[in-house]
Fold this sequence. Notes:
Layout: E1 6-12, H1 18-28, E2 33-38, H2 45-50, E3 55-59, H3 62-68, H4 74-77, H5 85-102, E4 107-110, E5 115-118, H6 124-130, E6 138-146, H7 156-159, E7 162-164, H8 176-183, E8 200-204, E9 211-213, E10 217-219, E11 227-237, H9 243-253, E12 259-260, E13 264-265, H10 266-270, H11 273-282, H12 286-296, H13 302-310, E14 314-316, H14 319-327
Parallel strand pairs: 1-2, 1-4, 2-3, 6-11
Antiparallel strand pairs: 4-8, 5-11, 6-7, 6-8, 7-14, 9-10, 12-13
Amino acid sequence: MNSARAAIVTTLRNAGNVLDSFVSYHLSIGFGHLYLFFDDAKDPDLPRMAAYPEVTAIAHDANLRDRWRSLPQYPEQSAFIAREVMARQVLNTELAMEMARADGFAWLLHIDADELFYSPFETAAAHFQSLESQPFETVQYMNYEAVPERDEIGDFFREVDLFKVPPHLNRRKVTPDLVHAVRRMPQLNPNFFNFYASGKSAVRLSAPGMRPTGVHHFMGPQKRWEAGHSNRHFVLHYACCGFENFWTKYVTLGRFADQWWQKYDIEKLVGRFHLEARDVVAAGEREAARAFYRNRVSIQDNQSIDELLSLGVLARFSHPRQILSSIGNPDIAA
């Protein structure tokens, strides 16, 4: 039995070698299994991931699409499957809930392949074990967004340790110096985060009727459900760390629409960055895209970084790098 053990579900494409770090890190901190849904059935990473005994690697193929049709949310998502990656994420997560439940897991965390679950005070296994005595059916974890400090980055999980601190978690007093420092940085203003700031969630698999709602949360049936919020565990979001990763992300996404699910306005929800990044990469001018990356994503001025660290706007988290360094570069064929 996996009585209080937790698993992870992720939908991914073109993750590359960082995927080994993603898997090794989460296994090392106490997750029991990872369900990886490869959005491209011919993804070159799929055979390598399938060699991990603690990974279930699933290709986006006819068999997966057949399995989607049996899911409760399929009628709601079916019209968006072809053009909306988040619709596929919802269905993959709903399917992973069934798989993880059948495999005996108690909790399922939904994160992306450019994210790490950060548990600085205890193992993830100990955290999810502690939830057994709590009434929660879902637990939300706030996210920090990474700040790359250079153009050339390979394995960002091993190379990046600088993050934007969610403003409500900044314990420093709000001073004019802090406000001015944020406002003068295009990487922080007008929207502090370039991407989401609503966190990610885990769901208790024994809770009846729970289902993913979007890619950040889970919800219950037509009744009240117990939702918890952890202030000791977080999600570290390594979005667009390195120019090549930034470029590849938006080449892969292509010319997506200005709305999610044809009704949720992206700019109103997360600001202009995601749309502007789409447009600058779609134009095909790499140097213009590199200038955008340097101005809106990375902070490469050490004086600015030191100031923002002193004001609590940024923070360094070296623990994930240390964990991965202790693991080394795993040879899964060994």
